[in-house]
TrEMBL record:
Can also use Mn(2+) ion. This is Isocitrate lyase. One of its GO terms (biological process) is carboxylic acid metabolic process. Pfam families: ICL. One of its GO terms (molecular function) is isocitrate lyase activity. Keywords: Lyase, Magnesium, Metal-binding. SUPFAM superfamilies: Phosphoenolpyruvate/pyruvate domain. Its cofactor is Mg(2+). Mg(2+) binds at residue 189. It catalyses: D-threo-isocitrate = glyoxylate + succinate. The keyword Lyase applies. It comes from Reinekea forsetii. The active site is at residue 227. The keyword Lyase applies.
Length: 536
């Protein structure tokens, strides 16, 4: 059991019965047990209830990780409530508990799949309200998963009572009392805040009210935001970014989610530009350090052109290099130093977790930066993007090829430029690379401070892959067998509850409600002629 119940099932029935009796004869047809069941099926009555509950879970998991790095957490990105629901149903089915398993809400997938403008790139052009709407939708579907599973238990309880099986009745009541909800934390992407700090605060409130206990915020310029794995990223000085971190914290505190979690993401590793020069107040302050990474050239007053911006650094007059757009350039090769600087500053400004967007999945690279951060803040830990933007197979095979080459191992059987070839799949290099991919999350948790591993847009890809396979079979020579053999038969044999799609969509819950409301007059869908009966 992952959480304490406010009241046992029997206590809830008794409480409803007292209410009914107090109301008098007009409530004679209000069944106390039905009320208790509906309350049990709807434990979370608001998004704020969910945010407070899941924040406690996430804080518990963070503390567990601090004591044992093998206790890292995971999530998959979901672009629809149904996808999130099916993910958590699968987790409970295969692992019995949802502990350590979250959902991730990806701004990329909202842009690509949920915008009224149609498919968009990950540049914060989609409607900001779509973010909070998807959080609400995900939790609506997760709550419905609870109602569906509990409904099955209630029907089994009725059968046990009718049969006079006291032992089974007690066992089922215990299962109801110990029921683990599908409600889990969502790490929700707010991009760069969709505007200034006030805009960030307003959107954060909507997200928290929808149920978000954890908000991820990145240090890009809001109106220049790019996907973390594309070129053209522009960062902001720390003062601007930290104002938004505080805005999110104020939103959490205003709404009573006192232990809400903020993930501070830095894109500095791949961002070579800044829109503004930071205002230095005291030599050596954060702004001065930020500016020290600018790519500059020493100048004299005679060398200046109209409109030039100049700085005094180390007693010298320097001119920052600028693009025709007016954006300022950072020194090449300064990305890792800027990431470390960003992360330490963000934690000191009130962030709880860090996100370093990298260009490849390399434990050594990530761990090297985390070691430097932990030298200042020992409890620092990461949320890490196991991104589909990486070619994982090629990256790990090339890492291993280079490692073996440096160690003097004979790699003459391999062509580094052709390592994606299927002929290498069963080779010693291919098999060892796959083993390292399999161990990546455990290794990164242990050696690179990664508390949470997520895949940003996996269900975007699985939807495309499964649809391609079905379309190829169904519209080809397989015809209907393409669906039956490739989908329905697999659902039946793998025990996928969704094979009973009417039940999954809520028809049984609706039947129960009809019986509560109308008694014997209820016209229910789950009769003998319901074709879902073909699936047992």
């Amino acid at each position: 059991m992952s959480q304490a119940k406010v009241a046992t099932y029997k206590d809830s029935v008794q409480a409803a019965d007292r209410l009914s009796q107090a109301a008098g004869p007009s409530w004679d047809r209000i069944d106390a047990e039905a009320v208790a069941r509906m309350r049990t099926q709807n434990r979370f009555q608001s998004g704020l209830d969910i945010a407070r509950y899941t924040a406690t879970i996430m804080r518990r998991d963070m503390a567990a990780y601090d004591g044992d790095s093998s206790q890292f957490t995971q999530s998959l990105g979901c672009w629809h409530g149904f996808i999130g629901q099916q993910q958590m149903i699968s987790v409970k089915k295969h692992f019995t508990s949802t502990r350590g398993k979250y959902l991730y809400l990806s701004g990329w997938m909202i842009a690509a799949l949920r915008s009224d403008f149609g498919p968009l790139p990950d540049q914060s052009m989609h409607e900001k309200t779509a973010v909070a709407s998807l959080i609400e939708e995900l939790y609506t579907f997760l709550r419905q998963a609870d109602a569906r599973e509990l409904g099955v238990l209630f029907h089994a309880l009725d059968s046990a009572v009718k049969a006079g099986n006291d032992l089974k009745e007690r066992n089922l009541i215990a299962q109801i009392d110990q029921y683990e909800t599908h409600i889990v934390p969502i790490i929700a992407d707010i991009d760069a805040g969709f505007g200034n700090a006030e805009a960030t605060y307003l959107l954060a409130k909507k997200m928290i009210e929808a149920g978000a206990c954890c908000i991820q915020l990145e240090n890009q310029v809001a109106d220049e935001k790019q996907c973390g794995h594309q070129d053209g990223k522009v960062t902001v000085p720390h003062e601007d970014f930290h104002a938004k971190i505080r805005a999110v914290r104020y939103a959490f505190l205003e709404l009573g989610v006192d232990d809400g979690i903020i993930v501070a993401r830095t894109d500095s590793l791949g961002a070579g530009l800044t829109k503004q020069i930071a205002k230095v107040r005291v030599a050596g302050d954060a702004a001065d350090q930020y500016n020290s990474f600018l790519d500059v050239e020493e100048v004299t007053p005679q060398m200046l052109n109209p409109g030039d911006v100049v700085l005094q650094q180390d007693g010298k007059l320097v001119r920052p290099k600028r693009l025709p757009s007016g954006l300022f350039m950072f020194r090449p090769g300064s990305g890792e130093d800027r990431c470390v600087f960003d992360c330490i500053a963000a934690l000191k400004a009130g962030a709880d977790l860090l996100w370093i967007e990298t260009e490849k999945p390399h434990v050594g690279q990530i761990g090297g930066m985390v070691d430097r951060i932990r030298a200042v803040i020992p409890t620092a830990k990461l949320v890490y993007n196991n991104s589909p933007s990486f070619n994982w197979t090629l990256s790990f095979r090339q890492q291993l090829f280079d490692e073996w080459s440096a160690a003097g191992t004979d790699v003459s059987a391999y062509s580094r430029a052709e390592l994606m070839q299927p002929s290498y799949d069963d080779s010693p290099l291919g098999l060892e690379a796959d083993r390292r991919i399999q161990q990546f999350q455990l290794d990164a948790a242990k050696n690179a401070g990664v508390f949470h591993h997520l895949i940003t847009l996996p269900t975007y890809h699985t939807a495309a892959l499964s649809t391609d396979n079905l379309a190829k079979a169904y519209f080809g020579t397989d015809g209907m067998l393409g669906y039956v053999a490739g989908v329905q038969r697999q659902e039946i044999r793998q025990g996928i509850a969704c094979v009973k799609h009417q039940q999954m969509s809520g028809s049984d819950i609706g039947d129960d409600h009809k019986e509560y409301f109308s008694g014997d007059n209820a016209l229910k869908a789950a009769g003998d002629d319901n074709t879902m009966n073909q699936f047992g």
